[in-house]
């Protein structure tokens, strides 16, 4: 299947010599949710801006629906809805007119029923006759989402969509995202809330320093890079581990009161049962045990922290 977005050797550099993107390659399949993670200045917004036709690339190629974003920008822009980070709206226009006008900008005929559905989905219907200056910051964020959905795009970009907004809006947004995915819309989001990517994304990409470090199926990424810990609260603290336990993924914490076993869930150095038997034979006993699975945040920090 041909990807709905295809990016090849995408670069962006500025006159001062700064390289925002350094040879990005990425394919996005129709109907998937891709989460792009990265620290501030990593290149996430620059890449999105190029795909959306807001910023010109320095090199490489970007195809959206088989159309080049530079040569056929009208065709590609119609396919895309963008929710930017910044709250850029006409403060003296009504919610209804703002969203309806955005639909017209993309060459779509008026469709009041669709506009009503979008506003209702985002809990904006009772605000439809309010001007933007009468709305809270969270409500203005909802309007940006409504504008992005006004022309029924095939691809939706969400650039830090829930930064600084309330929990209610987040829930509304992710409910709408699930509805859009079910209808075949492709969604690419950037976020600092890694738990959101972990919850809703199909694939996860990590960007740092203008480079795409990896793009993986979320489950495969967790299996490949995730780690587990067995945590034993010891009955009696240990000064040090017996030498024959060295190199087995074991370490002491909290002044010797806690024994931690780090292991790969798919390739354990030894089975948990065998380890507990060996500890018991050495007269090392525990009063409580628990396990911890590495989160996507742990993986992200490890990748970005190790990247140059």
Question: Would you kindly provide a written description of the structure presented here, covering whatever features stand out?
Answer:
- It is a single chain.
- The chain is an alpha/beta fold and 308 residues long.
- It is 33% helix and 27% strand.
- The protein is built from ten helices and 14 strands.
- The strands form three sheets. It has a six-stranded mixed sheet with strand order 6-7-8-3-9-10, with helices on both faces.
- Strand 7 (155-159), helix 6 (167-182) and strand 8 form a beta-alpha-beta unit.
- The longest helix is centred in the middle third of the chain and has 16 residues, at 167-182.
- The two termini are 34 Å apart.
- 31% of the residues are buried.
- The mean pLDDT is 86.
How would you concisely characterize the structure shown here?
The protein is of the alpha/beta class and 308 residues long. Helix content is 33%, strand content 27%. The protein has 2 domains: 5-223, 3-Layer(aba) Sandwich (Rossmann fold), CATH 3.40.50.300; 228-294.
